[in-house]
Each structure stands twice: as structure tokens, then as C-alpha cells.
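Exercise 7.
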Amino acid sequence: MTSDITHGQGDDHYYVGGYSAEDDPYVYPNGVLINLLNIQDTASLGEAETDFASVRIIQLQESPIEGDYSLQHLKAIHKFIFQDIYPWAGECRKVGIAKNETIFLPHEEIEAEFQVMWQRLSQTIFLADLKWDLQGFARETGIALGCINHIHPFREGNGRTQREYLDSLARRAGFLLEWGGVSKLAMKNACVEAETDPECKALAKLIRLSAKKI
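Solution. The predicted structure, written as C-alpha cells, is:
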């Protein structure tokens, strides 16, 4: 059983696994995400979210949050970006959701699955062992992105949080990721392909094309 929902910037997530807005602690009864401004329509919330998050992302890029790349680290990044708009910023979702043809990981498995990805990253000392190795960096970063996207820890704001997390990893490998050259369609298609490709080759290609040595 699924139930369509809308929120943020006209987002097209929907519930799966028998969940509905009644089960979701992060939405008002009308399906709009609970927010600090008490905005009750998705369009206005999307505009406010973009405005506040954009400022925080600039601050984060100037002074990244240090951490061990664990789920707690990712949650700290999410909380920083969305602290001005969502009281639940930094908290993992508690419902099953999907978007387009992709069904994301059941929320009960978020912590365990993230730990699996973390263990893989730890084998390269969180990419520091891949300093200026573009092929190896793109491969491991692509797999990490595919994993995090499938895990989809948060109710909203996953993409922006993922990018800041990966940007921090990239710097350890001596690269800067220029996301501006990646279209939303290309990223969407690569993420969909990653659902059935454990090597996440399409994402690795996007990473390889976006990476600049620093």
C-alpha cells in the first residue's frame, strides 16, 4: 500500500511499506513537512528551504564539519544545513519512502547499512589512500554515493547533504568535485542505474568527469 505525498520543492516522494502521513512524525496532517516557520504550502516551503540552506551550504564549504564520516557525521551535516527551517534536522526518517521508480532502504536498516558503507570507506582511510588516483577515487566515491542515495537517511535534504559529505571525502583524496556541471537528469539516471549495479559505474563516471585535482 502506498500513499502519495508532496513536500519541499514539489518533490515527488511517496510512502511505501504501508506508511502514510499519519505515521510520519515530520509532516503536518496536510502532508507538508513540519517547519520552524509554520509554512503550510509546499511551494512557499520550498523557497524558504532553498534560501536558508543555500546560506548554510556556503558557510559549510568555507568551514567544513570535521568528523569520522560515520552516520553521526552525516547527521551533523544535515542538521547544520537545515537548522533554520526544520526542527527535525539531523534526524533520520522513520517511514518508508520512494521516489519515481526507486524504493529507498527501509528506515529500520539505515544504521546497519550505513555502517557497511563506512567500513568500506575505512579501508582506504576514507579516501586518503587514493590521493590523486582519479580512477580509484571515482570508483569508491561513486559506490559511496550510490549507497548513501539508496539508504536515503533523511526525510528531506538528502542530495545536498550527500554532496557536502562527499566533498569532504574528496578533499582527502586531493580532489574538488564541481557538481555544477552535472545535470539533475544525469544524476537521477545514474542513481537509478546504481540500484541494480553494485559498482555504481554511471555514478563513478559522473564523479570522474566532475573531479578536479587540488
